[in-house]
Amino acid sequence: MADNGNSGSLLLGFALGAIVGAAVALLYAPASGEETRRRLAKRARETQDRAGDVARQGREFVDRQRDNLSEVVERGREIFEEGREAYRQTRRESL
Predict the structure, then answer these.
(1) CA-CA distance, 27 to 35, in Å (whole number)?
(2) pTM above threshold 0.90
(3) What pLDDT, on a 0 to 100 scale, did the predictor assign at position 3?
(4) I need a labelling partner for 88 at 20 to 30 A (CA). Which of 13, 35, 73, 78 fits?
(5) Where are the domains of the chain?
(6) Sorting pLDDT into bands at 50, 70 and 90, what band is 78?
(7) Are 22 and 43 spatial neighbours (Cβ–Cβ below 8 Å)?
(8) Radius of gyration of the chain (CA)
(9) Which residues make Cβ contacts (< 8 Å) with residue 50, sequence separation at least 6?
(10) Alpha-carbon distance 43 to 65, whole Å?
(11) Which long-range contacts (CB under 8 A, 24 or more apart) does 47-53 make?
């Protein structure tokens, strides 16, 4: 799980690089100003949609991990209580 934070940064960097690359390509492409602005606006909308999807997936991932962690902690508590009870029972029997 330690790499998940880096994966998000990498994905964000990739998305930003793609946006900048697309904008530069459009600006250097032989097209009218109106056509270029239309293309940039279209790319901006597409990127906004993709960013929303990535954010949603990130939230879902965090929620799943939070649920998994809660289950692990709860199971750890159960095992601890079982061990403590077994220890107490052993002490009672040895006395």
Answers:
(1) 10
(2) no
(3) 52
(4) 73
(5) 4-94
(6) very high
(7) yes
(8) 27
(9) 15
(10) 32
(11) 47/15, 47/18, 47/19, 50/15, 51/15
Q: What is Dmax (Cα atoms) for the chain?
A: 93
Residue 88: band (very low, low, confident or very high) from pLDDT cuts 50, 70, 90: very high
Q: How far is C-alpha 59 from the geometric centre of its chain's CA atoms?
A: 6
Angle at 61 between CA 2 and CA 12, to 5 degrees: 70
- Determine the residue type at 23: A
Please tell me the distance from the alpha carbon of residue 15 to that of residue 79, in angstroms, as a whole number.
44
Q: Residue 34 is encoded by which pair of tokens?
A: 């109106």
The answer to whether the beta carbons of residues 58 and 8 sit under 8 Å apart is yes
Note whether 42 and 19 are within 8 A (CB).
no
- What is the rounded distance in angstroms from the CA atom of residue 85 to the CA atom of residue 70? 23
Q: Which pair of tokens denotes residue 50?
A: 């993709």
CA distance 88 to 10: 51
Paired tokens of 8: 């998000």
Tokens 């929303």 found at: 52
